[in-house]
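Entry 14. Ran structure prediction on the chain below.
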Amino acid sequence: MISAAIETQPLNLELVNQQLEKVEASELVAWGAKNFHDNIVMTTSFGIQSAVMLHLVTRLIPDIPVVWIDTGYLPSATYQFAEKLIQRLELNLKVYQSSMSPARMEALHGKLWEQDNLEAFNHYDQIRKVEPMQRALRELNVKAWLAGLRSEQTKHRQTLGRVAKQGDIYKIHPILNWNSRDIYKYLMAHDLPYHPYFDLGYVSVGDWHSSRPLTADDTDERDTRFNGLKQECGLHLPKTREEEESLNSSSL
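Output, structure tokens:
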């Protein structure tokens, strides 16, 4: 196991990824806890299969801050699903919301999601997701972030290491190499629930106005979000098309 002096020098990501390439997901979570102590968090959207990462991480780091960006526009089923997981897993939940209420936003900018253009969608995400997420990272003094990205989801994710860096924050990807079958097996093995919208044909669920079920005409699962114009989850605005694909809202 690596013993990294996080406080005094940056990680050698190439070396770290060589050493951690084949470790189990739980070992990578434990590595993150050992090296980043009280400065590590995880995020959740309480999406289709969010229970996987929530269970995997909290059984090893029970008190880890779990950041949830509540846009105020989530389906009622998401809030109900979240409450069940919060109680069952005893989550140390940190809810962050925009400083601008939905009513005020709509009064000033209209219903941005109805404008059906990328600029409006980005503006919406900046207000409701990006700003509160950046505030959470600052207030919680985050140095490492456990994320449920998987390489099979996009081409760009295939290029990611199990440990990466985004700005000044290290991103740790415990289940990067898992496939859909691995996810299913974990859910079944631990008797974990998935979001009720899965039974309605959803492969990804975010805000009620920007998510829809998968149809036979869809060529990509990401087409079910933001009318196919925008694929990222909204916690960060992409700078390139590859980053946009990488930040696609996944079922985790």
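The chain has a mean pLDDT of 85. Will compare against last week's run tomorrow.
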